[in-house]
Amino acid sequence: MEKMTLAMPPEKLDKDSLVYKVNPDLSGIDWAYVCELFAKVNWRTRLAEEIEQAFRKSSWTLFVYKQEQLIAFGRTIDDGRYYAMLGDIVVDPDFQGNGLGKVLVNKLNSLLENYHFVTLTAAPGKGDFYKSLGWKKQTTAYIWPQGPKQLRQHTEEGEV
Ligand SMILES: CC(C)(COP(=O)(O)OP(=O)(O)OC[C@H]1O[C@@H](n2cnc3c(N)ncnc32)[C@H](O)[C@@H]1OP(=O)(O)O)[C@@H](O)C(=O)NCCC(=O)NCCS
């Protein structure tokens, strides 16, 4: 018999029970689990030691927990003063649609006071998510594509 997998609808969350951790001690983060969440949203493989070192370079990191379970995270990638971008905005698919993405983006953005440039690169198909939060499409951004997939997904040349 053919095996059928049914996609479960995302879980409704009791928002008051969530714990938001801004700049927690990064030694206490389960980086292997962070890598699992990256895989769960189909992003390119991250290695636990490397992603930890990358997060350590961020001025701001934000982790969201449901009890002990990490369900969302995001960070800034920045120079501490002038330029910042939001990155690694990830919500566990089981908990998407509960407003967590919005909280991650708005909270991180609110921490970037007096920066001269605050930007982000939307994952393909996620532009409307950022637009709904008030972000504007930047007409002056350029990318050096790291391969044909990026050329296809992130540039006008690739949009045929
Ligand atoms: C994109 C992502 C962060 C959104 O998180 P989420 O918790 O599901 O989003 P929210 O529930 O906070 O949605 C906030 C608003 O954006 C809208 N929205 C969410 N995803 C959307 C999408 N893909 N396209 C358009 N609008 C979207 C919601 O309808 C909601 O609108 P409302 O406030 O009018 O109700 C989440 O889908 C995710 O982690 N995706 C995988 C990783 C990724 O692509 N990250 C971001 C790209 S850089």
Automatic annotation (TrEMBL):
Record-level Gene Ontology MF annotations: N-acetyltransferase activity
Origin superkingdom: Bacteria
Coiled coil location: none
Alphabetical list of CDD domains matching this protein: NAT_SF
Cellular component GO terms, alphabetical: cytoplasm
N-acetyltransferase domain: residues covered: 17-156
Residue spans crossing the bilayer: none
One protein family per Pfam: Acetyltransf_10
Keywords on record: Acyltransferase, Transferase
Record protein name field: Acetyltransferase (GNAT) family protein
Species for this entry: Pedobacter nutrimenti
Lineage of the organism: Bacteria, Pseudomonadati, Bacteroidota, Sphingobacteriia, Sphingobacteriales
